[in-house]
Design a protein that fits this description.
alpha/beta, globular
């Protein structure tokens, strides 16, 4: 694949994953380019980060919409206008409607701070610690109608340290997230990872289990 893949990143908060993706995309050899960062609120810290990197930003203010469908329609219109062919949700704190997910099927990614299918939903770091897990991490997956349930492409995995607190663990997982999310964008942009009818192909063959980035030293 020779053309550079246009990517949009959708955020609600500080946008550290967005920044990691954007910084890789600004390298001359990057096979993808972040063409727009969209937030669902003006207060998203990532908007300033994106602007300082020279990336166009827009806000689709969630409070101005009466229901999920109308917000999702506005978000979809903004994404279409951006020209993006891949959409990376990065700390986007809203559940998207089935119609939106279907419209962007195979072009919509999310990052979740656990080794899916473990710990869908919130408080993943505390839950992994409370369960006494030996390992924890983050997953980049295609988004489907099932919350945090779409096919996982890549996981960053680390060993939990004795006596580790949720905040420290969260910071280490974040460091891993900043490695795996841009990496997945590259794999998709170069055609090595593909969505095919609800499953993932890697180098043309079905991906039976996620690609793994092991990094115990993160953070
Ligand atoms: C990350 O932990 C990500 O896994 C989750 O939301 C957080 C976003 O962090 N979906 P940031 O805004 O990218 O710093």
């Amino acid at each position: 694949m020779s053309a550079v893949l246009p990517v949009a990143v959708v955020i609600s908060g500080r946008g550290s994953n967005m920044e990691a993706i954007a910084r890789i995309s600004l390298k001359p050899a990057s096979p993808f380019k972040v063409v727009r960062v969209i937030a669902d609120r003006e207060s998203a810290g990532g908007l300033a980060r994106a602007t300082s990197l020279g990336i166009p930003v827009s806000v689709v203010p969630v409070r101005q919409f009466a229901d999920r469908e109308s917000f999702d329609a506005a978000l979809a219109a903004e994404l279409d206008a951006s020209g993006a062919r891949l959409v990376a949700l990065a700390g986007f704190m809203r559940i998207l409607s089935p119609g939106f997910v279907q419209r962007f099927e195979g072009r919509l990614l999310n990052i979740h701070p656990s080794l899916l299918p473990k710990y869908k939903g919130l408080d993943t770091h505390a839950r992994a610690l409370a369960a006494g897990d030996s390992h924890h991490g983050a997953s980049v997956h295609y988004v489907t109608a099932e919350l945090d349930g779409g096919p996982v492409i890549m996981q960053g995995r680390l060993r939990i340290r004795a006596g580790e607190a949720p905040d420290g663990l969260s910071a280490r997982v974040h460091t891993l997230e900043h490695i795996i999310y841009p990496h997945v964008c590259t794999l998709i942009a170069t055609g090595r990872v593909e969505w095919r009818a609800g499953s993932v192909l890697f180098d043309g063959s079905p991906l039976d289990s996620p690609l793994i980035e092991e990094n115990d030293a993160a953070a």
